Input
Amino acid sequence: MIRTLPTKFADLQPFAETWCLATESERWGKRMASSMNDLLAFYNVAFPRLEAAVDYCDQYPLDALPEDVTNLLHLVYSLILVSMAVEIFGQAKTVDSADAILSRIKEPLP
Amino acid sequence: MHRTWPKPIEGSWTEHYPVLGTDPISFEDSVSPEFYELEGEAIFKRAWLNVGRIEDLSRSGTYFTKEIDIAKASVLVVRGLDGQIRAFHNVCRHRGNKLVWNDFPRQEVKGACRQFTCKYHGWRYNLEGDLTFVQQEDEFFDFDKETSGLDGVHCDVWNGFIFINLDAEPRQSLREFLGPLITALDNYPFDRITERYDFVGDNNSNWKLFADAFQEYYHVPSLHPQQVPSAVRDPNAGFVCAHFQCEGPHRVVSTAGARRWTLPMEAMYPIERATRSGLVGPWESPDLGELPAGVNPGGVEPWGISNFQIFPNIEILIYGGWYLLYRYWPTSPSSHRFEATLAFQPATSVRQRVEHEVASVVFKEFALQDAGMLGGTQAALETGVVREFPLSDQEVLVRHFHKVVGDWVDEHRLAEMEFGS
Output
């Protein structure tokens, strides 16, 4: 499936297939399965675009986002999750989380 | 350098409650299988237990089931045609099959229906628990459908939180049980804070050990050093809470809070600055108007968070404009199921939704550190080598919690002995 981003964010399109994920559960799985190089490659390009991306999405009512804008918002959600690994822990897995799991079972849409 | 706060006239929070003593305590209550059995009888079959929010049952016919392993109970909670919320034992009155479940009998389920039908022989119950249909009813002997409805479980609602009580006759009403510390939150607008991020995780520790970790902030600088960016991290940092209070079996701790945007740039991670959200939630939340004084019983200024621990197994952490809820459901002496909810005022814009997502993501990272460590605590306590553990004044609520658990179990033991003699 092709997850198209708004043309203004064409520079992020190479990351769309991997990181436009609708649920935290999918995003968490993707982060855990990624190398630090993968995470940095995404973060280094996407983080400088974060505020512009949120501003862009924010032009639309929350309950009526066009499909490409929803994709962009999902990419922003992934960036938030990846920023934890990059900025805080320096690794994909939460430092000192041992064998603990915590599954998000309910979240608002989108 | 950390800020200090005035302590009670007795010189410490702990000595303010003389019944707690200041001696080292035992954690035998968190490893003993015998004690676990007693907790089921003395606490989980007696206390009011929060199993959900009214928003979980938004219309007639919506229901959910709650497995309470330690009390050997499965409870069905449903909103009837009359709008009333009721609870029943999730057991068919015919041959004892679990009434509502899907593929796995021990897994909780939720949904909406017009009536409940047992998979086994097709007996049907309405949303009010009455038995409405029995296949070949005339083949039964001296059978009265009227008295064969589902077994009821006491159920009441406080400020939108649904509580059940498994006792045949609860010793206290829900309001009496909650007492002044919690009912002081009567007018807190939980009903306007309904955008929810729910989490669940099975954890390899006794239920009380996880609750302990959230009843003190003494562990925070050590276990969660990454909550502060490394540029401003002090390896010898401590943390002092502004106010502790115990009332009946319940407790509260309040901390002071700096306004995030007044902190220096380097005290924030880039993601926090970019989204104006993070560790303690969105930097700003829509104003909820005047709040009951009970939210900040110690009058802490500037107030940050109040963490209310409602006995036995829930905590409500009230932040400015949003709250966190934890529940600990024992599943064995050395394990429990942890439930957590972050609840916000419903976002009205993408920007607000992003703030909520950031808070939910940061919450999970640091909760995983607590959850990960506790397996180690459980394993070491089970060696039984060390039997006495010192608690600081910052851990007064841990002391109170284990004391109350012990008191309820002792009271139950005594009653059993009197009954047996």
Q: What stands out?
A: Chain B touches chain A at residues 195-204, 223, 226, 269-271, 274-275, 338, 340, 346-351, 353-354, 356-358, 360-362, 364-365, 367-369, 371-373, 375-376 (CB under 8 Å). Helices of chain B lie at 13-16, 33-44, 174-183, 207-213, 220-223, 270-275, 350-382, 396-420. Chain B has two domains: 13-30+187-420, 47-165.
